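Quick one, T. Sequence first:
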Amino acid sequence: MTKLVTGAEFSEFRNAINDVIDTFHNFIVTHCKAEQEFDRWGEENEPSTTIKTDLRCLVEFMTESEDKETKRTEEGAEDIQNLEVSFGIDYLESVGMMDPVTKEAAFDRAKDYFIYESVVYRLIGMVADGPIDTKNALIVITLKKEEKDAT
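Structure tokens:
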């Protein structure tokens, strides 16, 4: 059986996808990584520092969710509780946001949070998407609005 797409063609596809990502991923989401410290007994303390990193992405308000906190518009219902955010994997690698061992985005679901338009969101889901040959092109995360000030 022959291969329909060669390695060079996969490379062309990946370059084209990265061009699209570079063109349309123009929103900024701030990733806030809590740096955990341990006391002299090896127990975790409250995070004492937070490292904030601005990341380029594509942001989409979800059309419906199970929480059903929606805003009605002429175009239909818009979920105002959850966001779906897409990052290019090659971009995340270039800014050091991919774990080199697991090849997953270096987001801690329990401690990290995101800020978009001065609203704080928590990570509730993450999936790799857009397979091209042996590597995905996107990381898509789902964020839920949190009742917390963006300070």
